[in-house]
Automatic annotation (TrEMBL):
It comes from the Bacteria. It comes from Massilia antarctica. Belongs to the pirin family. This is Pirin family protein. Residues 46-145 form the Pirin N-terminal domain. Residues 200-302 form the Pirin C-terminal domain.
Length: 304
């Protein structure tokens, strides 16, 4: 069945006039809630590391999720000077603020309010991410998404996606959904990945509104609430918490009800079920491949 939906129209690239209404028959429950760990990263950026290394196997293919948000320049102004990556993808989503990207493959771009930067490190790239503001709020997320073994040595790739190019729709209940990756209610996201099939949504719910999202069986999935609080299968998920969704065999999706005006990101992906060997910014399948990555970086063999 199709349902006419109200839309936020910005450019023809994101116009959505119809969306397919999704009905979840058996919702997933919340397996557990995660607090995250406050860490300093880069040259001294204050971060809440929500998805840590000990959750990589449980939430395969996702490797890390960092949430950052502060209106104090000292918490973010030092940024992330040049550093290397190999073997995975980084997805930076800027809720508010401006960050400049430069890398050794010759790419440069500015992520601003509501924009996304999707980078495939592949066989290796060195990049920097530096604030392009000296005051005000900076808030957003960085996600690390693993690459299948066959793609880990692929050519580096980069794309800036401004907010106006992110497909979106608003349901009859007033829930606004931005589809960064994958598909929701028939609306295709800005990015698709065949190997990991990631779903990445930004969902804003008015108080008491509900939202349903179908999820493929076996895909690992989680929700991070960054405004308000929501109920997932009657489990309260407060602001600043990640809810890992149970992989119940018969469950076909997730049902969310807002306890108050709320906003969250929802992620799901097809697990790779491959070995994970990580040393800092290098994520491969064996220790030998990690050692090779270190040698290649030191020898200047990353993208130049």
């Amino acid at each position: 069945m199709t349902q006419e939906l109200t839309t936020e129209l910005t450019t023809s690239e994101v116009t959505v006039r119809q969306a397919v209404e999704e009905r979840v028959q058996q919702p997933r429950s919340v397996e557990r809630l995660i607090n995250g760990q406050f860490v300093m990263d880069g040259a001294g950026v204050k971060i809440n590391r929500v998805l840590t290394q000990n959750l990589q196997r449980r939430l395969d293919p996702f490797l890390m999720l960092d949430a950052f948000g502060s209106d104090k320049p000292g918490d973010y102004i030092a940024g992330f000077p040049e550093h290397p990556h190999r073997g995975f993808e980084t997805i930076s989503y800027m809720i508010t603020g401006s960050m400049r990207h430069r890398d050794s493959a010759g790419n440069e771009g500015l992520i601003t309010d509501g924009g996304v930067q999707w980078m495939t490190a592949g066989r290796g790239v060195a990049h920097s991410e530096m604030p392009e503001q000296t005051d005000g709020m900076m808030e957003g997320f960085q996600l690390w998404l693993n690459l299948p073994a066959k793609d880990k040595m692929s050519a580096p790739w980069y794309r800036d996606i401004p907010n106006t190019e992110i497909p979106r729709f608003t349901t009859g209940a007033g829930v606004t959904v931005q589809v960064i990756a994958g598909a929701s209610h028939g609306v295709q996201g800005a990015v698709q990945r065949a190997g990991t099939e990631p779903l990445y949504l930004d969902v804003a719910l008015p108080a008491n509104a509900s939202f349903e999202q179908l999820l493929p069986p076996g895909h690992n999935a989680f929700v991070y609430v960054f405004r308000g609080q929501v109920l997932i299968d009657d489990k309260l998920v407060p602001v600043g918490r990640m809810a890992i969704l149970a992989n119940t065999p018969q469950a076909d999706g997730v049902r969310i009800v807002a306890a108050q005006d709320s906003r969250l990101i929802m992620l799901a992906g097809r697990p790779l079920n491959e070995p994970i060997a990580q040393y800092g910014p290098f994520v491969m399948n064996t220790q030998a491949e990690v050692f090779q990555a270190v040698d290649d970086f030191r020898a200047g063999r990353f993208a130049a």
